Amino acid sequence: MTTRLTGVAMATLVGGGLGAIALTPAGAGAAVRTPVSTVATTAVVTKAAAAGCATGKYQKQVEGYLKKIGGYGTVKVDGKQSAADCAAIKKFQTRFGIKPAAGLAGPTTYDVSKRLASTKTSACKAKKTGITFCIDLTHQTTWVMKNGKVHLKPTVTRTGMKGYRTPAGTFKINKRTKKEWSNPYEVWLPYWQRFIGGRGFHETTTYLHDKWRGSHGCVNLLKADAKAYWNLGKIGSTVKVIGRRPGT
């Protein structure tokens, strides 16, 4: 015999009143009581799964920074994870090489989004003609200006650590090689563009967000950014370095 929920039982279950039960088949006509608390728990889990990712410690702050930066989708600044928030955070994490790109607003995502949102491109004071590569040591960000306007939006970088500080100032690119060998550190430096001494732009050789590593004075870039900078640069291109990396 098959047991069916009556209209009353269904209404009681949906209403979620105390003591409500769901009747399910259990052998020959027997009924099993399923507490509403179990149904409610399942609903919460299902809702979380629908959002696509968990709520991180810095959810509201990251939502605010992503909204200010723009370009990663619609986010609601309420500190509550949603499918749209999850998608936007994942897209942001993927763009800036944050691992894992799972949509969780953790400390690295918070740090990167805050730095990018706080960067003031006008502080570079780029020349009105041609290309200027801008580096903000304070926020550990970099961007490109063309004819006095933003050409490539701010992205993340990692400059010289303590004892190897990247100096501030205005410089010119004086050497470019698609793949440069570093004798002191015995590593290849892809998309190398030197602008002072042994320092220059190049694709990072390690996880960019391992801050404790720092660089030995170079401006480390994600692969996509290193390639974009390489395609825009030439001998004589202007590089403006402002601020100072904290702790150096």
From TrEMBL:
Gene Ontology terms: cellular component: extracellular region
Residues annotated as domain L,D-TPase catalytic: 131-242
GO terms for MF: peptidoglycan L,D-transpeptidase activity; transferase activity
Gene3D superfamilies in alphabetical order: L,D-transpeptidase catalytic domain-like, PGBD-like superfamily/PGBD
Keywords, in A-Z order: Cell shape, Cell wall biogenesis/degradation, Peptidoglycan synthesis, Signal, Transferase
Domain of life per record: Bacteria
Signal peptide: 1-30
UniProt-listed InterPro entries: LD-transpeptidase, LD_TPept_cat_dom, PGBD-like_sf, PGBDSf, Transpep_catalytic_dom
Pathway(s) per entry: Cell wall biogenesis; peptidoglycan biosynthesis
GO BP annotations, alphabetical order: cell wall organization; peptidoglycan-protein cross-linking; regulation of cell shape
Active site: 202, 218
Protein name (database record): Murein L,D-transpeptidase
Organism field: Paractinoplanes rishiriensis
